[in-house]
Amino acid sequence: MRRRTWLKVGLGSAIAFAVAGGMVATVRPGLEGGRLSRGAREVLRAVSLGVLDGSLPPASDRRDAELLAQIDRLEQYIGGLPPAVRAELSQLLAILASPAGRVTFAGLDAPWGEASVEQVQASLESMRHSRLLLRRQAYQALRDLTAGSYFSQPIAWGVMGYPGPTDL
Question: Domains of the chain: which residue ranges?
């Protein structure tokens, strides 16, 4: 294929993703009334497991409680973002929560709630190293939101060996 053909395919794909994302987001948005939809919570739970693997407590009731707290922190953080950013994030979460978006955009065959940590991590890595800028940006947004909201909490500082701020 020639370069011009690749550019046309890339542009066509980007337009198709944008149209499909807009349609999905209007039908079932990722944020409903400023709160995460059920699908968005499932996506962010799986992404949190993938990004924070090794930082969370081992599988137990404590881990489940920590994940619920993580999703609540994410929801609170997202609520404080500017409206335009929340709208874009709502579209991204809506796309990822839909089966078609999960498979085509994230490259994840299993539903988010059933996917293993390894499957989610492989999906995130494929987004991270994608040729499509949109997929790389989605990866960065998901990773930054997840890691930032988790590691900003004093409960996570011990995992990193950070004793906390010093008293002046």
Answer: 3-154
